[in-house]
Amino acid sequence: MSNTENDVHQKLSDAVVNMEDATAASLSQEVVASGFDAYEAIDKGLAKGMERAGVLFEEEEYFIPELLMCSDAMYAGLDVLKPHIKTDEQAQKYKIVLGVIEGDTHDIGKNLVKIMLESSGFEVVDLGRDIPPAKFVEKAVETNADIIGLSTLMTTTMDGMRAVVDILKEKNIKEKFKVIIGGGPISPAFAKKIGADGYSGNAAGAVRLARDLCGVAQ
Question: What is the pTM of this model?
Fold first, then answer.
């Protein structure tokens, strides 16, 4: 009996949580063979699995080695699915400068956001991880970006996000860029407090937020 699309999504999520690279890859191949939507499989399967792994990490049931093995399983699935994501080539390209704030080298979430933004038609300038606040501003100005996206998984680096907004204000260019933030310790209240334009707790939400801020129909 063949799996329904929802079944496959659940199994993909489980494969990530259970650190099963081969299973994630074979299930992703099933998505393609069955004609299921690759983007949905990433959003509701692989990304959901990483969210669950993140919760287990926060609850100290998983630690860094387990989280890295979960990400390996996620990437095994992504490698299969990425070529099959349908993109809207006709849509206007909005540009987002994306990176992990200085002091943090955790980029699994950022990489997932990048993939989903690109599949939704955004042009992503990926700065990487451990990026100083001033670098985000410099690159946004240089590339004439629409959005600056910041992430962190550490409470100790959250002030770097505030610094990006403060630099924009000091240069009197805050109105030129939308700033969105995300990551484990981040909240909508913190986003509001530092003057960011929005917050998302997951990759799919980040895409919806970016589209909303750019006035793109959902």
Answer: 0.77
